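assembly run, all chains below
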Amino acid sequence: MANEELKHTLKEQIIKYLNLLEKTPADIKDDQVLFGEELGLDSIDSVELIVLLEREYGIKIKDPKEGRKVLVDVNTMADYIIANRTR
Amino acid sequence: MIYVHKIASVTPQKELLPASIDEVNESVNNVLKVVEPKYEGVPLSILRRMGKAVRMGVGAALPLINTLEFPLNGIVIGTANGGMEDCIKFLNQVIEFEEGTLTPTNFVQSTPNAIAAQLSLLSANNGYNITHVNRGLAFENALLDVWMLLKENKTHTYLLGGVEEISSYNYNIDYLADWFKKDEVSNKAMFASETEGTLSGEGSAMFIVNAFPEKAIAKIDALHLMHTDDVTEIERQLQHFFNQHLEDGQSIDVLVSGENGDIRSRHFFEASERLLKDATIVRFKHLTGDFATASALALTITCQLIQSNVLPDHMVKIDRHKKNINKVLIYNQHKGIQHSFILVSKPAA
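ok done. output:
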């Protein structure tokens, strides 16, 4: 999957997993901070995103410090998926 | 006794009491689903995680709490199943993902006490907080709890509520157990149905209650709950209820009957009508459908009837031409085994 296609799919999955009402992939910028005010995500959402990575890409994040580096924005998540995906 | 000060509800109808039968929303495939409002006042970040039962409960209750002029001492909710849809989603995930990492949201929202808990968090209320889950008497048990609380704490105010959602899983189980009709019947014609089963419904009803009569919209005089499938026992206990709670010369103006279109339970309602030969008989389940805590919506409707003193034609089964609605009996039953009487009256001016 090309990087841009992956990012689009990832945005769709973020919207689905977090049930972000009234959001479309176009509303989420690649470098938009996920846990900032704009998207309004919180700590429960971070667990949902970890579950997303595991279910959709076979990636298990066990170290919270690693999670903090990965769950920054769509770019960092996509880069991590490309480097670590098992499916 | 308990005084009702504020009511709010989410129901399958746009208006709690449609003025005419033409304005009554019709059931689809024997199901009456709620018309959900916009839930203003509930933060979007929290709303997106809520299952339907939690949304309906919080959406109806939060505006009541936020506009309260006095402190709220507790939150008491009755729900037979709570957020069953999320519960089943969560359990399915346990199997689907082989007991691996699970999403927290479905689990958090799936417990019946999620409604009362979410209300507590959103309103920063750290008072008494409990959820009663006694199937078809869940709301009545919540009401009984508040009754006892107000006996002990006469100056307290409580949020009392009843909530139920239709989950596809639960609907299917009850459908297979013949609790819902197999033949297509419109809610507008459900009381004429001669078949077994009822129509499925859902909704939420919330009340601000205390022991202060000033500015109250209704007074709950008495409550009685029982488990029986014996119609003669219903008649005996209803007569005893009247003997206990109606003073000499008092009579019931309106019976709000939980008749549900199921031919198997018709004899219960006919028994209650036999004891109320002078009362106007009204029915409400063509507006709400049937569900375990439908009596909560019956109480909301009763408060509205007492306030407005108007009975929409589509609700009336037998009109005894009462000029004033001062005393109302709500009789409801669930699955032919759980029954309740709630006596409601107009507070003295």
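Chain B has eleven helices and eleven strands.

Residues 2-210 of chain B form a domain with the Peroxisomal Thiolase; Chain A, domain 1 fold (CATH 3.40.47.10).

not gonna interpret more than that til we talk
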